[in-house]
User: What shape does this take?
Amino acid sequence: MIMKNILVLTDFSIKAACAAEFAMHLAIKTRTNLLLCHAVEHALPITQEIEFSWLPINNEWENDCLAELKVVKRNLEEVVVQYNSDCFKPNITYTCATGTITSVTSRILKKNTVGLIVCGSHKANNLFRFFSESHSHAIMDNINCPVLFIPEGLKFKGVENITYATDLSFNNSKVIPYLAKLAVPLNAGLAVNHISVGEFSSIVPDRSITYALRKLLVDDLPALSYHCIQHVDVRAALLEMTSSGTTGILVLVHKKYDFMERLLNYSMSKHLSGRAQIPLLILPFDFSQDTADITEEELEHYCYDAADLR
Assistant: This one.
């Protein structure tokens, strides 16, 4: 068991059902239990920071939510029949609570050991995304836990390769071991892709970078490869990865911007969350809080602005 629980956020929609089923397959493969959660947000003009514990509990609402969650649990338990009789059978529990999606999730993380959050990806137009935080964006900015976004309608067909797009501006000592623990039980390879927007002239050979990354693995697993990809547009390059057919899960490390920074920068993880055609795993910014693998002088030869990939 690489993590004790996978938290599945559901609003009982079709896209949430797809995400929950995908999470169930992951739970079986990684020998992890599932925790289902539904949050009900009151239509009140209050901020996300305010707790909702003082609001009156509507027993009828709570019973309806629990009944819906019980149906979701029963449907997920049927996924097990697709596997051998001796496969791991995740323990599925569920809960419902009143509050914003981030406040409810935060409370759950304080009470439970959660290694991954899974939810359906949220699509929104640019105007909506600018003036109002979607649930997926709020989770990225406020929850310190890896989040896997599943596109609507996507069925689990195994994961052959996990692709991590990075600028190599930090030592990845948290990222690579985490991804390795996810990749090994899935029998997936791990590809580390650096996208160069200019002429690539690194003084650090690819084999040296590959060696440094492999040193972060345990027992040299999973199979790890490093690639430097030249492209004039980082966003376009990432979107090509999601539609290439060779990437099973695309991984990015998220960076938060304040209001003024958002006017000058655009979060790549938020940009892809509603556009990726494959599962998108967003690691919290905490995963990048490390010293650099290589010197600033070396980085100048082949790294673009670190903010471009977050």
User: Anything to note?
Assistant: The longest strand covers residues 33-40.
